[in-house]
Amino acid sequence: MDVNEKNEKNEGKLDSKLQKMKESGAEAWKELKVGMEEARNDLSKAMDKAANRFRQ
Fold first, then answer.
1. CA–CA gap between residue 14 and residue 7 (Å, rounded)
2. What's the CA gap between 36 and 24, in Å, rounded?
3. What is the pTM of this model?
4. What distance in Å separates the CA atoms of residue 55 and residue 52, rounded to the nearest whole number?
5. Using one digit for the tens of pLDDT, what is the confidence trace for 5-52?
């Protein structure tokens, strides 16, 4: 196996690892996004309650 073949083999491994990282990052973002939306909704509800108490 010459140097070029080794480089191509290593590039293939790196591409595979990069693809796995992209996929896991996308999955993590989806989970994080759901959690952030829930937190935003909870905060919005709490702020609305506080505003209503202030108005009374």
1. 10
2. 18
3. 0.56
4. 5
5. 877 788 888 889 999 999 999 999 999 999 999 999 999 999 999 999
